[in-house]
Amino acid sequence: SGKKNVFLGLFESEEEAARQYDRALIISKGLNAKTNFDIKEYEEEAHKLHEERRANPSVAKAEALVQNIKDEFSTPGRGRPKPAASARSIPNLKEMLYDMFIFGEFSKKTGAGAQK
Question: Is residue 18 within 8 Å of 36, Cβ to Cβ?
Fold first, then answer.
């Protein structure tokens, strides 16, 4: 049928799971996605993250470094074994939405892009 299941993570509550699902839906379907919660909440989440990073650039650098290390160690090759077939990577959907709302295609549609 061509459809794929994507593992979005394990969550403590149904609300957390629904929000992660919404993030994935917005990324794949765009701003017209039928989400559980108002899309504006995710836009506000992205802008809050952006303001936190602007206020404290060293935190953003540290977050990027940690993500690069995670990516490096989860990438097969370079003498590292392939991950087990059951190993699942969890996409960082908050980061993806941040990029889309602040710098990407959504910033143009909502008029809320980062000020340079």
Answer: yes
